[in-house]
Amino acid sequence: MSVDTTSADVCARFQNAIAASPTASEETIGLSVSGGGDSIALMHLAARLRDPKRLRVLTVDHGLRPEAQQEIALVASQAADLNIDHAVMPWTWDGQGNLQAAARARRWAAVSAWAAMHNMREVWLGHTEDDQVETVLMRLARGSGIDGLTAMYPLSERDDLRILRPLLGCARADLRHWLQSNKIPWCEDPSNDDPRFDRVRARQMFAQLEGLGLTRKRLLQTIDHMQAAHLSLQIAAHGFARQHVRQDAGDLLCDPPALDLQKADAPRRVMAAAFAWVGSRTYRPRFEQLLDTVARARKGMTVTLAGCIMTPEPNGIVRLTREAAATAATRRPTPKPDMTGAFWDHRWFLEGPVQDSLTFKALGDGIMECPNWRDSGMPRTSLLASPSVWEGDVVIAAPLAGLSNGWSARIVADFHSTAFAIED
Question: Which residues of 317-346 are buried (b: 16+ CB within 10 A; e: fewer)?
Fold first, then answer.
């Protein structure tokens, strides 16, 4: 991982970074651009190396600062000059929780929805080497383990969307110099100097830590070591899961060794991944909650956590099931000619005779319209959370519960192949 970057090779570093992307040149790429120096550089560098007609730019308007409208106008103007489509999505904070965490969550939700709207499979974000250093410092302060200290990967995946960070090998100062050399203006966000925010304090703290020998180079080396260790642990967990976790449609059956979270890393990693997969969540449950929930399930209790239900079965096995009440319905407007079905709850694809205004959701009380559900061999709780097709208040199909009517349902990303980001 490089440390010294000069403005002369910013383009070369960017080009090398995007070479890691598997996306074909004719596919459309989404760019998240706020108007700050990093994302403005991302947009201009992308336009130099990709056909602008194959790029789209999104700016999320948080509505928190009066300067935001100037930043949006700057992005819109530059995107137009580059012949790149530009969209703006507004967001209003409800005042609940941590502002920066809420803003990050909303930004990602907007990016994900926007990408899906335009059938984009990859987005590029403007995180830099400085962001990488600040991230690992903040996570050190929180007592993070190996997973947290891996910071950000150049190429990753979230919600079935590839994320490329082509500026991770570039220092923020070098990007500013590159922008100045090319006479490209950008906006400075005053909140970047507000010590109320963790990232700003980490940035200020780093200047003092360098004097103690904790340099940028050392921190980047630590991240590199942590990423290597993380991969080894993921491989071990993948093998452990193959032995002790069995997938049953959308459920997971966990053997006793997978439920022993007291010492070894593999069971902890596997159970955390299991909850994230069954619960269709990006983030794993908090470790203390995970320990407590699994311990109670091992004692024979039926417990819930993170949109999942743990139900004890014979021989010490525990079934992990999606909680029907934690799912959301997906509505489809008038179908397109080539539409054959719909994705639901991030894991399922329902395929069948698509009609106008169908709703895809958990079966729930609709199980009463499935007289042969017991023939499936699945527990009733599992079927309550299984995918179904509705028209108004009428259940049209529930494939797993024996009511097909021309519909089928399949898991699009099975647990063992996707939960550890390792191909079988």
Answer: bbbbbbbbebbeebebeebeeeeebbebbe
